[in-house]
Structure formats: C-alpha cells, structure tokens
Amino acid sequence: MNTKPQVLSWLLCDGVHIDPATGKHTILGVFSAIRGRQFPLTHPFMIWFLTLTNVAEGEHKIKISLGLSPESMSVLLDRAFQSQGPLQRINLINDVRNLAFPAPGDYAITIEVNDELLLATSLTVAN
C-alpha cells in the first residue's frame, strides 16, 4: 500500500538541542512571525523543524519553497533524507541562514516530499 507522507509538526525556531543521552529534541525560541524596522530585511538565522511520518522505506527528497506569490516562489531547501519505514517519525532540522524578505507581507511556504505537496502555509513578515 502506497500512502502519502504526513507532516506531524512544522516549527520555525531559533534552535534545536538534541540530548545525547536520550535523543530528545528541545525546541528553542519558537516563533510564527518576523518583525523588521527596515526593508529589505535579512533574517540572519533560524531553524525550520519538521517531523514527518508515513514515509516509505528508502531515500526521499524534501523541497521547501518561499515567496510572496505563487509566481515568485523560490526553493530554499532541496535535500535528500532517509526513512527506515512508514512507522518511523523523522525529525528534519533545517538551518536557514540570511533569508531575505524584500517587503512586508504574508509569505507563502510550501513543503514537498518527492515532488508531492504536503503542506502549504504562510509566514507573516511585518514592520
């Protein structure tokens, strides 16, 4: 049975600490919007934390895109990841550095696995 991967969590945060003894993830500084005084604005560093499940065993490709409109979407992340099988919860920690926002607005974010759309959401950038 071939089923679609599922997004269990999607967080923007300042950092993720993984406890070496337990493997537990501690999420630091979760945020849902970005504020800036001047535009264009460059956000120096953030983590895009994503948990997936129901991903078939093997290698897969994740792609995350961002833009002010569907026509202006640009790919920010395009990388491979491994799944041990559909019951595994896969935590993907993605460093995003020097992300540029030319103007305030609601930026669309799309997340795809193997070119299949899993999540479409937005990020408000305001002054």
* CATH class label: Mainly Beta
For CATH, the homologous superfamily is named as Macroglobulin (MG2) domain
Q: Order the strands across the largest sheet as they lie in space.
A: 4-10-9-6-7
* Sheet/helix structural class: mainly beta
By CATH, the topology is Immunoglobulin-like
Please describe the structure with a list of short key phrases separated by commas or semicolons:
127 residues; mainly beta; Immunoglobulin-like; 5-stranded mixed sheet; 3-stranded antiparallel sheet; 0% helix
How does this structure look, described?
This protein has 127 residues and is an all-beta fold. The protein has one domain: Immunoglobulin-like. Helices cover 0% and strands 66% of the residues. It contains no helices and 10 strands. The protein has strands spanning 6-13, 15-18, 25-28, 33-35, 41-53, 58-67, 74-83, 90-101, 105-113, 116-126. The strands form 3 sheets. Strands 4-10-9-6-7 form a 5-stranded mixed sheet, with no helix packed on it. Strands 1-5-8 form a 3-stranded antiparallel sheet, with no helix packed on it. A two-stranded antiparallel ribbon has the order 2-3. The radius of gyration is 15 Å and the shape is globular. The N and C termini lie far apart (48 Å).
Describe the protein's topology.
Blueprint: E1 6-13, E2 15-18, E3 25-28, E4 33-35, E5 41-53, E6 58-67, E7 74-83, E8 90-101, E9 105-113, E10 116-126
Parallel strand pairs: 4-10
Antiparallel strand pairs: 1-5, 2-3, 5-8, 6-7, 6-9, 9-10
Question: What can be said about this structure in brief?
Answer:
The chain is an all-beta fold. It contains no helices and 10 strands.
